[in-house]
Specification:
By secondary structure, this protein is α+β, with helices and mostly antiparallel strands. The protein is built from five helices and five strands. A hairpin with a 6-residue loop joins strand 3 (88-90) and strand 4.
C-alpha cells in the first residue's frame, strides 16, 4: 500500500495555505483515519488556544477493533510520509480513547460512545477546523 499524499489536490482546499501552523502530518493522519472508516474525522487548530500542541486530529470507530485499526494506520502512514513516530501512545490496551502524542500534534481515536461523552469538539469550540478531505469527484 502506498502512503497517503499530504499535499492537497487541485479539487481540495489547501490546508497549509489556510492554517499555516498545522503540521502537514495532521492531514496525513486524518486521511489515514478516513481510509479505515474513521467517523467524523476533524482537525482542530489549537495553536492559538493551547500552548502545548498545535493541533488535534479527532476521529472515532464503532468498536475496539476498528479503533486499533485506525491507530495502526495513522501510525503507519505518518511514519511512511514523514518518518515520524509518536512519542507515546496511551489507551491502546482498552481502545476506549487512544491518544497518539506526536508533540506538535495529538491524534485522539475514540470509541463512539467515549467521543460522545468527552465531546472534545464542544470543549474546544473556539478551535478553528482545518479542511483536510479530498473533494469527491463526480
Amino acid at each position: 500500500m502506498t502512503p497517503v499524499d499530504p499535499t492537497p489536490t487541485a479539487s481540495a482546499p489547501s490546508a497549509r495555505a489556510t492554517v499555516p501552523d498545522i503540521p502537514a502530518e495532521c492531514i496525513v493522519a486524518a486521511r489515514a483515519a478516513d481510509a479505515k472508516s474513521g467517523e467524523d474525522t476533524v482537525i482542530l487548530d489549537m495553536s492559538n488556544l493551547l500552548g502545548l500542541t498545535d493541533a488535534f486530529v479527532v476521529t472515532s470507530g464503532r468498536n475496539t477493533r476498528q479503533v486499533k485499526t485506525i491507530v495502526d494506520e495513522v501510525e503507519r502512514q505518518v511514519k511512511l510520509t514523514s518518518d515520524r513516530s509518536p512519542h507515546r501512545i496511551e489507551g491502546l490496551s482498552d481502545a476506549y480513547w487512544v491518544l497518539m502524542d506526536y508533540g506538535d500534534f495529538l491524534v485522539h481515536v475514540f470509541l463512539d460512545e467515549a467521543r460522545a461523552f468527552y465531546d472534545l469538539e464542544h470543549l474546544w469550540t473556539d478551535a478553528p477546523r482545518v479542511p483536510w478531505a479530498v473533494a469527491a469527484t463526480a
